[in-house]
Design a protein that fits this description.
About 8% of the residues have low confidence. The protein is rod-shaped, with a radius of gyration of 64 Å. The protein is α+β, with helices and mostly antiparallel strands and 260 residues long. 5% of the residues are buried. The strands form 5 sheets. Strands 5, 6, 7 and 12 form a 4-stranded antiparallel β-sheet that branches.
Length: 260
């Protein structure tokens, strides 16, 4: 029988047994279109006539018309060797495309970001913090020892320097004078001595005199340079200094070596 594709009108010559009397689903080899092809029409069995004495010979059956020379012959290809599915058999479902197609190394914006940054180690952080604090403390102590404590730093500082070896300061209270001049100016005079009690010469540092009020608060101070910068063993020098315009609240004086 001859069948034609309803999509591209390509015609094929196929045997009747390939289609069957019930028909089946076929597919065009040219455009890949599938359709249901009906089976060949069956000729009903005619009743047998009564025998006649003389029957006229019947004409031979007509020869089927050959197909046109340009009609392609349906030949199964390698990928079509299997028979097309019948009409009552469901076609296989189309393949489901993958959600993401790409190479294994291709990155996607929906992929979870890997943890590129290393997790912080608390022990290492504390070690670095302790080392930094120790270095800062050592630098601060060294600067204070070399340059001295800044004046703006709210720390307790000694009023006087430590005692000098073999050098003795003597400022008796009865030799200190404080009075008011006729002009109303406050006057204070300090008298004393410095003695080297050792067996070798000593350098004499400056002297600091501090005046305090009745509540032991420092209200005035000044520095006295000794008459000699060095004293031989057993040598002594006097110290006599006087200042004016001292605060009226000054009540007593303290004497010591000037701190560096």
């Amino acid at each position: 029988m001859i069948i034609a594709c309803p999509a591209c009108t390509t015609r094929y010559v196929v045997p009747d047994s390939a289609i069957g009397p019930d028909g089946r689903t076929v597919r065009c080899a040219k455009c890949r279109h599938s359709w249901f092809q009906d089976g060949p029409a069956l000729v009903a069995d005619a009743p047998v006539p009564e025998a006649a004495p003389l029957a006229q010979p019947s004409s031979p059956p007509p020869t089927p018309e050959p197909p046109p020379p340009d009609a392609p012959v349906a030949t199964p290809r390698e990928d079509e060797e299997r028979a097309p599915p019948l009409a009552d058999e469901p076609l296989p479902p189309p393949p489901i495309p993958p959600a993401y197609v790409g190479t294994p190394d291709a990155a996607s914006q929906f992929d979870p970001a890997p943890p590129f940054s290393r997790r912080a180690n608390p022990l290492r952080l504390w070690t670095w913090a302790a080392a930094s604090f120790a270095a800062l403390a050592a630098a601060t102590i060294g600067a204070a020892a070399y340059f001295g404590v800044p004046d703006w730093l709210p720390v307790s500082r000694p009023t006087f320097a430590a005692g000098q070896p073999d050098l003795e300061l003597a400022f008796p209270v009865e030799q200190q004078q404080r009075r008011q001049l006729a002009s109303g100016t406050e006057y204070f005079a300090a008298s004393g001595s410095i003695t080297n009690t050792g067996g070798q010469a000593r350098r004499v540092p400056p002297i600091l005199i501090v005046l305090r009020d009745g509540q032991d608060r420092k209200v005035y101070e000044w520095v006295v340079q000794p008459a000699k910068r060095s004293l031989a063993p057993g040598e002594s020098i006097p110290v006599n200094e006087a200042v004016t315009d001292v605060p009226r609240s000054a009540r007593f004086a303290e004497f010591g070596w000037k701190p560096d």
